Amino acid sequence: MKVAKFGGSSVASAEQFRKVADIVCSDVERRIIVVSAPGKRYKGDVKITDLLIQLADAAIHDEPYDSVLEAIVKRYEEIARGLELSVSSLISHIADDLQQKIDTYRDAPDRLMDAIKASGEDHNARLMAFYLYSLGLEAHYVSPREAGIFVTDEPGNAQILPESYEKLKDLRKRHGVLVIPGFFGYSLTGHIVTFPRGGSDITGSIVAAGVGADVYENFTDVDSIYCVNPAIVDHPRQLKELTYREMRELSYSGFSVFHDEALEPVYKAGIPVCVKNTNNPAAPGTWIVAERNHNDEPVAGIASDVGFCSINISKYLMNREIGFGRKLLQILEDEGISYEHVPSGIDNMSVILRANQLEGEKEKRILDRIQTELQVDEVHIEHGLALVMVVGEGMERTVGVAAKATAAFAEANINIEMINQGSSEVSMMFGVKEEVVKEAVRALYEAYFSSHIHSL
Amino acid sequence: MKVAKFGGSSVASAEQFRKVADIVCSDVERRIIVVSAPGKRYKGDVKITDLLIQLADAAIHDEPYDSVLEAIVKRYEEIARGLELSVSSLISHIADDLQQKIDTYRDAPDRLMDAIKASGEDHNARLMAFYLYSLGLEAHYVSPREAGIFVTDEPGNAQILPESYEKLKDLRKRHGVLVIPGFFGYSLTGHIVTFPRGGSDITGSIVAAGVGADVYENFTDVDSIYCVNPAIVDHPRQLKELTYREMRELSYSGFSVFHDEALEPVYKAGIPVCVKNTNNPAAPGTWIVAERNHNDEPVAGIASDVGFCSINISKYLMNREIGFGRKLLQILEDEGISYEHVPSGIDNMSVILRANQLEGEKEKRILDRIQTELQVDEVHIEHGLALVMVVGEGMERTVGVAAKATAAFAEANINIEMINQGSSEVSMMFGVKEEVVKEAVRALYEAYFSSHIHSL
Fold it and tell me: Which residues participate in ATP binding (chains A, B) (predicted)?
């Protein structure tokens, strides 16, 4: 049994719906379909979700919203017409449903926003089920409530409740193709609550784990995952296979394929993921699995992200002071700061964190606290740091991986501000100045994937 | 004004005493002399301090100690005779003093051990002062109590009390050459308390800081500090100059030149240190200073140490869990464990620590606590790790330092288990298996100091 999730661009138009139907019909194992809201059809197009946010904003601020509501309904109507479906009842249902949600949650803006946003996926799932049914398939729309997707009650940041998985098992007993909207679940008090960013991927992952699927197929608009950001390197190498851990490291820093939470349910259930292209389903796609044979390719990919800073602290005899590191991290925890890495020498320690956490007075306050409470010799912040991650399960047993990276930096005349590689880890982190991050990524790509001239 | 400390081998015999006298007489700025107890005169010789420990042990256990007491007195007598001093009163004073200390502290073994150990330096300082005086110098023995070296009252682990520095200033007003015994101070309750390992260096450093010396000269038996352990690399390069921070990183891991606490007082007072050879005082020695010009030589030295282990922890979505690192360090702190480095990836963290801290049940208990309290996916310990440190103030601004190191490892076919280099740090840490640590050090020495063929 396969669970197939189709992303926004895969369900953006009638033409895309037809591709999805072909994909579903071509394999009887594709028994559960999770759909996003209609995404962009072309560059510059507006996603339904963005229109829905406009709608909710207007309603919350008591501004007129008729035209945006109309634009939303029209998107579905266009899809339905393109599929030659009789649509009047469905379309009037959408308009009524949106209006009813606005009326219900007029005094609860967070709830209103969540309910309206979630409707994008919900209506699209209904439309998809209707279309598949019209093709002669036994297709059923299944709401997240019926499926059993129960979540915590924090608008916009739903977390799955463990009891959901027991309920989701029952979907195995259902006949036909089930179409479930992505992006949201229901709280135990009956409210619609959306998942954080990447929500439809999370739904697909939860459903796949719940039913114990053989594979979780994630249909998108690229043939595969690339080993490096294609916006930095032209036509980079495609990945056939990578592990959950590699994917997580990559998605964390600059790879927008999956939100980092999305893979947790399938990771825990040990269900392989296949990323495929709705527009070219014959391409093999990229498999995300528990283990891969990495003898040939110790490095899976290179990721990067900007916007980091480093708090650098020095104190003579720091390393003899039991509790120093713990007290430092306690200050950050008190201030609600999460950090990425803590490289250290004998008498100094750096804390790498996302700089956007230090807005306003916070930076000064944290530096003052470190100075006063830890009695350090010196503390200062270095801004404008980028992190570049070389990711690969095979690295830890391979001689020369670090040598290739550092030689590539040296040849490109890039200074390494920081290096961090732990025992049994799947990534090697380099800190560089933001200005040189693209050069750094290109240099690493050259070293690992492009040429063998530089190999040591 | 210079404070000159003479180590054990520099004051081991009459011949060595003469060299010290020549050194003292050759520079009128050498106004304060700190001496160790007589050390080894040849390979296989016994240090006075070891004899004193035997004496104290025997007295504590009510065993006969006449022969060892006699051997101790005889060492001083030989030195005195070799210097053609009239010695009878001095020698009988030593025997009486040791006997009196045994009688006084018969019921306080810790005190007895400290008092007896400290006597090695004390009697040697008296003898040195007497000898210098006999040469016509205005030399005075000054006891630590008279000098103002007041310390905490923990036998064998004295820490200087801040008020000492005020008192030590008065030594500037004294005339002649002052001879102070190293290794111990007096608690405020009047007891002799010895410093931890490297105690005479600590005394010299404290006195130099207290009197605001122009330089703290540390006389030993080598011409200079080497850039790498001569037991691993034959005839390594001598260092002309290094910074306090570099010295501290080096002495921490495998360089036995200074105990890591010894330099703190001069570091804080900004007093330069010169390491010189008593047997070859014309050699320029090695200077330890606050800043050095490191344009030519970004790397100062290479140090290594064995006996480390790594606790490796992984947990999916670890990096989203605010407080995870703090809780982990809290467990270690509860268990009285100090750690060296905490390299981390997105979902994993390693803690590097000295393995001798995990004796007995502790290892299992710590792993259990991490598993239970932090709900990690996996935790295990990797034993047999060595750390190799590349140390140098210039590294952080120099492209290619890391490349040289990692290329050297790759060429020597050595796998790097860990790398740790923080922003604005003075060292780069590599973790390797203990079996290959010497090869690793030699490979790095080749890369940085020996040849320029491999340079990038």
Answer: 5-8, 220-221, 226
Chain A residue with minimum CA distance to B261: A317
Going across the sheet that includes A286-289, the strands are A139-141, A177-181, A30-35, A2-6, A215-220, A273-277, A286-289, A241-243
Query: Class for domain A301-450, per CATH?
Result: alpha beta
Q: Which residues of A touch B352 (CB under 8 A)?
A: 423
pLDDT of residue A250: 82
Q: A-chain residues within 8 Å CB-CB of B348?
A: 422, 424-426
What residue type is assigned to position A192 of the chain?
I
Q: Round to whole Å and give the CA distance between A311 and A308.
A: 10
Q: What is the mean pLDDT of residues A228-235?
A: 88
Q: Where exactly are the structural domains of chain A?
A: 2-221, 301-450
Number of H helices, E strands in chain B: 14, 17
Displacement of CA A235 from its chain's centroid (Å): 22
- Over chain B, what is the mean pLDDT? 91
- The residue among B336, B379, B392, B390 whose CA lies nearest residue B359 is B336
CATH topology of domain A2-221: Carbamate kinase (3.40.1160)
- Calculate how close chain B gets to A422, using CA atoms only, in Å: 5
* Whole-number Å distance between alpha carbons of A96 and A89: 10
Say whether pLDDT at A293 is over 90: no
pLDDT band at A141; cut points 50, 70, 90? very high
Q: pLDDT-based confidence at A453, cuts 50/70/90?
A: very low
Classify A178 as helix, strand or coil.
strand
What is residue B256's predicted lDDT score, i.e. its pLDDT? 65
Shortest distance between the Cα of B388 and any Cα of chain A, in A, equals 12
